[in-house]
Specification:
By secondary structure, the protein is an alpha+beta fold. Helix content is 32%, strand content 39%. The chain has two helices and six strands, in the order E-E-E-E-E-H-E-H.
Length: 117
């Protein structure tokens, strides 16, 4: 499926999450933000016999965990290059809130992949 621009939103308890995806030529640019949106990590994913991802992260941020896994999933399932930018911040989030945000983030990425297949 070709996409000019695709948006998904979902509440993760302590944060409203938003995924935006757009094709850049044959590649895909994805942003996933929530709470106090920012750029916390960027992952580049690709597929050549297997999926791979490289990630850059702002120090003291945990957005890289989501960015790298999202880039791996997208590149593997869609067999295309992608850039995933993640920035989710909830001040003083509990471990339970963080777990809910991570789970919801991956659910949104999986939904995005299915919509773009």
């Amino acid at each position: 499926m070709s996409c000019g621009h695709f948006v998904l939103t979902r509440n993760a308890g302590s944060a409203d999450l938003r995924v935006d995806a757009a094709h850049v030529g044959k590649d895909l640019l994805v942003t996933l933000v929530g709470g106090k949106a920012h750029v916390g990590a960027v992952a580049l994913g690709g597929f050549h016999k297997r999926s791979y991802a490289s990630v850059l992260a702002v120090p003291n941020h945990r957005d890289d965990i989501i960015a790298k896994e999202a880039a791996l999933r997208i590149s593997k399932e869609l067999r295309q290059n992608c850039v995933v930018v993640v920035g989710i911040h909830v001040h003083n989030a509990s471990e339970g809130q963080v777990a809910e945000i991570v789970d919801t983030s991956f659910s949104l990425i999986n939904e995005l992949i299915e919509a773009l297949k």
